[in-house]
Design brief:
Blueprint (H helix, E strand, L loop, with lengths): L4 H21 L3 H14 L4 H12 L6 H12 L20 H13 L5 H8 L3 H11 L16 H21 L1 H5 L1 E10 L31 E9 L2 E9 L6 H18 L9 E3 L4 H4 L1 H10 L2 E2 L11 H14 L7 H13 L3 H20 L9
Parallel strand pairs: 1-4, 4-5
Antiparallel strand pairs: 1-2, 2-3
Helix pairs in contact: 1-2, 2-4, 3-4, 5-7, 6-7, 8-15, 10-12, 13-15
Length: about 375
């Protein structure tokens, strides 16, 4: 089995071969991709990795994730054919080259058309239209991906450049670089956070009615939670009540407290070795804050703007915390604070280590995506 760039180069070669065969024999894109799925499955490549590589090569023509996983499972079980199994039924007369071209043109003209609308336009059945769209043209309908911000080309370039620089440093210094990082961020903890739809799932027998829940909103009562942590765990948790905001002076007080906590909890580790990873909020970049960090001899890790996907607190910490808060009702700020403290300090050490160790993977992914947002890993 090949690794890294070699795998992609071999896949590129295979795509070229298949594409050549397609041009000569008019092999449908779906069949071409199944050939590649079979090849990579036999090489021991995971379906998730196969799907990533197919998307890189085929773009919008890529098979759906369900199809890739299903075919990978078939090939792993010894299945050989890349075509759908034949059925003892009357062949569809609507599966013609003219209909396939017509449907392809319709989809290219309007990506939001429904199968029924396409079937009506071409004057064929729903099943025939669906078969042409998914099996012959290789289309699958996907939802828009929500991102924090629509990045400009320049912003993507900045993200890519910063991540490449951080990757280069990680390659030079290894885990010693990651172990020096102290990261932080702020998030609201409400007196009531509705339980997520996923968290409320429960087992039901066939025929049983699904549970019903009324839609609820976040409570007005809330506490601003600031957490400083590193690969070993929590260093400091601070709470700020409503009608107060974090400014540079307040943030500098927190940094003084973090420094004292670091000396107490990380004995034997030089305090001047700290690398602080925080976002570009105004209190974090103010002159007063920069002077305080200079006084501490702390380095600030370069962090691109509009990049919560590269902040460990955003992609690793606050999500599970909000899930834990889901469904709980608190009567006071003190109850919220007690819950958050207990949750944070009872996480296993591996939880925080995993969050920091994900950084190089996310930097790498950002570089590969040419600065675009990194999805969940």
């Amino acid at each position: 089995m090949w690794g890294g760039d070699t795998c992609f180069s071999r896949l590129g070669y295979l795509v070229a071969v298949v594409s050549s065969a397609m041009s000569e024999r008019e092999v449908p894109p779906a069949i071409a991709q199944r050939i590649i799925v079979k090849f990579l499955t036999n090489e021991g490549v995971k379906p998730s990795e196969i799907l990533t590589r197919l998307r890189a090569q085929f773009g919008d023509m890529t098979l759906s994730s369900t199809q890739v996983y299903d075919w990978a499972s078939k090939f792993k079980g010894g299945h050989e054919a890349v075509e759908n199994e034949s059925h003892n039924r009357r062949p569809r007369t609507s599966l013609t080259d003219d209909n396939i071209r017509a449907i392809c043109d319709l989809i290219e003209g309007d990506r939001r058309l429904t199968v029924d609308e396409i079937a009506s336009e071409v004057n064929i059945s729903h099943g025939s239209a669906h078969s042409i769209i998914t099996e012959h043209l290789g289309f699958s309908k996907v939802c828009a991906r929500w991102v924090p911000r629509l990045l400009t080309h320049n912003q993507k370039q900045v993200r890519q450049g910063i991540c490449q620089g951080l990757l280069n440093r990680y390659e030079r210094e290894g885990n010693n670089f990651l172990h020096r990082i102290v990261t932080c961020d702020e998030s609201w903890a409400h007196h009531y956070t509705p339980e997520s739809k996923t968290a409320s799932m429960e087992w039901r027998r066939r025929g049983e009615h699904c549970p019903v829940k009324a839609k609820t909103r976040l409570s007005a009562g809330k506490v601003l939670t600031t957490i400083f942590w590193d690969w070993k765990g929590v260093l400091l948790i601070d709470f700020l009540h409503e009608r107060r905001t974090v400014n540079a002076a307040y943030y500098c007080q927190l940094l003084d407290n973090v420094k004292a906590a670091y000396k107490n909890k990380r004995r034997g580790q030089p305090i001047r070795n700290v690398i602080l990873l925080h976002d570009n909020a105004r209190p974090h970049t103010a002159v007063l804050t920069r002077d305080k960090l200079k006084e501490f001899h702390w380095e600030t890790l370069e962090h691109p703007p509009y990049s919560p996907d590269l902040s460990p607190s955003d992609y690793h910490l606050f999500g599970p915390l909000k899930e834990a808060l889901g469904g709980h009702r608190f009567q006071s700020d003190d109850e919220v604070e007690e819950f958050v403290r207990n949750w944070a300090v009872t996480r296993p050490p591996t939880f925080y280590e995993e969050g920091i160790q994900k950084l190089p993977t996310r930097w790498q992914k950002c570089v590969e995506l040419q600065g675009d947002y990194v999805e969940k890993q």
